[in-house]
TrEMBL record:
Family statement drawn from the similarity comment of this UniProt entry: Belongs to the glycosyltransferase 8 family.
Classification via InterPro entries: GAUT, Glyco_trans_8, Nucleotide-diphossugar_trans
Domain of life, source organism: Eukaryota
Gene source species: Acer yangbiense
Transmembrane segments: 20-37
Main localization, broad class: Golgi
One Pfam family here: Glyco_transf_8
This protein's name: Hexosyltransferase
Length: 533
């Protein structure tokens, strides 16, 4: 029995030790809970403080007071009414309900006076002093809703208004395009006056005709391939004069420069008179008219043949051809002008020459161009500045690639280039029958499905694979329609006013006009008589 006594005492000791153990665990758990709760309180206080600080900054930035945040605030109610009333004033005016708009405006002023007085005395508005203003404004706002100035109705009305404005903007844009095109095509009175006076001068002054006969002795000069030959095809006397004058003034050897000018029957006499009256630092100038080219007839030239087609005449001249959606710029008769298409017949126009530089009449020359005649074109026909720095000037922007003939012959991502300053190797031109290539594509486009606009698209087709890229500084474009980097202008040898805003027109870009006007002598008696300034 003594040996079992300890056995009976052991369980008692175990029960006592378990109680103690659980008690200690409970104390520890309670201690940790206490510690954690303290830490959370410590952490929450800065968070609350930061949030409160942030709200204070927002209120300060928005000029919001505690009173306005109060749901029962009279000031807040008045402010909300004023905001809504201002919107209804605009809507009422749009609806031509001027009387109601005036009533709303008057009540807005009354409410604003109450708010201003309360702010001045630094005490909140009381319900008693604002009761009348709130009630009167509420009545007006309810009346506005009765007049269908509610949100849903106004959304529908504004949608209709936006649609109407879009249609109006489209119409205005179309008219603007038409009027801009008309302005670009107009002959200024001063230019018309100059042509008339020069024609009178030519037929009335025998000395000018005698000078021209004396210059016929320079036939050898016109065929001398050691000289620098330039050609310009134009009916604009003053613009052509600027091209010649700017080239002469910036040439290192003006006596070696020869200008071949081709114009039409109307401007032939005044053009001859102008260049007989004026001298350009020894530059040789010869004037021709394309009507004298016997080979230039409908049996040889596709453009002249197309002009005999009644549908083509209707499309370009009557304004009623096509589908009615074709932009006016595509239907400009100037794109069928022989002076525009004569650039594709340069070897026929100048059969004795081997290399020429072609210049448009809307350029200004600012550097010596003699180096152009020594550029190696590497067997190509056309030396031109590429314009594919942007995607707009790649082939797919000028040609209709839905047409299988275009799609199968030309890379849509091929780099475009510009007419206006081009070096032509006439020996290679004749060897490769480039004019025949032009004829082929012009005849294929009789229905205008390959391209629509101008002489550049057929040029891109004609000289595809036959164009040598030139340094961009030789030819800087865009002065007639966009902003051009001043550094490019400074480095440019030839500045091109391509676009509608020609420098001799009123719509010309004012900041670029001085670059062109620099080469116009406004003190010339004929220019003064015709009011050039």
């Amino acid at each position: 029995m003594r040996r079992r006594g300890p056995d009976f005492r052991r369980p008692v000791r175990r029960r006592i030790s378990n109680v103690v153990w659980w008690t200690l665990c409970g104390i520890v758990v309670l201690f940790f809970i206490f510690v954690l709760s303290k830490e959370s309180q410590i952490e929450s206080r800065p968070t609350i403080a930061r949030r409160s600080e942030r709200l204070d900054k927002i209120m300060e930035g928005l000029n919001i007071t505690d009173e306005m945040l109060n749901a029962d605030s009279v000031t807040r109610q008045l402010t909300d009414q004023i905001s809504l009333a201002k919107a209804f004033v605009v809507i009422a005016k749009e609806s031509n309900n001027l009387q109601f708009a005036w009533e709303l405006s008057a009540q807005i002023r009354n409410s604003q006076v109450l708010l201003s007085n309360a702010a001045t005395r630094r005490t909140p508005l009381s319900t008693r002093e604002s009761e009348t203003a709130i009630r009167d404004m509420a009545l007006l706002l309810f009346q506005a809703q009765q007049l269908h100035y509610d949100s849903a109705t106004m959304i529908m009305r504004l949608k209709a208004k936006i649609q109407a404005l879009d249609e109006q903007m489209s119409t205005v844009s179309e008219k603007s395009s038409k009027y801009g095109q008309i302005a670009a095509e107009e002959v200024p009175k001063s230019l018309y006056c100059l042509g008339v006076r020069l024609t009178t001068e030519w037929f009335g002054n025998l000395n000018l005709q005698r000078k021209l006969k004396e210059r016929k002795q320079m036939d050898a000069t016109l065929k001398d391939n050691s000289l620098y030959h330039f050609c310009v095809f134009s009916d604009n006397i003053l613009a052509t004069s600027v091209v010649v004058n700017s080239t002469a003034l910036n040439s290192k050897n003006p006596e070696k420069v020869v200008f071949h000018l081709v114009t039409d029957e109307i401007n032939y006499s005044p053009m001859k008179a102008w260049f007989a009256i004026n001298s350009f630092r020894g530059v040789t100038v010869v004037v021709q008219k394309f009507e004298d080219f016997k080979w230039l007839n409908a049996s040889y030239v596709p453009v002249l043949k197309q002009l005999q087609d009644s549908e083509t005449q209707s499309y370009y001249f009557s304004g009623s051809g096509g589908d009615g959606r074709t932009p006016i710029k595509f239907r400009n008769p100037k794109y069928l002008s022989m002076l525009n298409h004569l650039r594709f017949y340069i070897p026929e126009v100048f059969p004795a020459l081997k290399k020429v530089v072609f210049l448009d009449d809307d350029v200004v020359v600012r550097k010596d161009l003699s180096a152009l005649f020594s550029i190696d074109l590497n067997g190509n026909v056309n030396g031109a500045v590429e314009t594919c720095m942007e995607t707009f000037h790649r082939y797919h922007k000028y040609l209709n690639y839905s047409h299988p003939l275009i799609r199968s012959h030309f890379d849509p991502d091929a780099c475009g280039w510009a007419f206006g300053m081009n070096v032509f190797d006439l020996v290679e031109w004749r060897k490769r029958n480039v004019t025949g290539i032009y004829h082929y594509w012009q005849e294929k486009n009789v229905d205008r499905t390959l391209w629509k606009l101008g002489t550049l698209p057929p040029g891109l087709l004609t000289f595809y694979g036959l164009t040598e890229p030139l340094n961009p500084s030789w030819h800087v474009l865009g002065l007639g329609y966009t902003n051009v980097d001043p550094q490019l202008i400074e480095k440019g040898a030839v500045l091109h006013f391509n676009g509608n805003s020609k420098p001799w027109l009123k719509i010309g870009m004012e900041k670029y006009k001085p670059l062109w006007e620099k080469y116009v002598d406004y003190t010339h008696p004929l220019l003064q008589q015709c009011n050039f300034h």
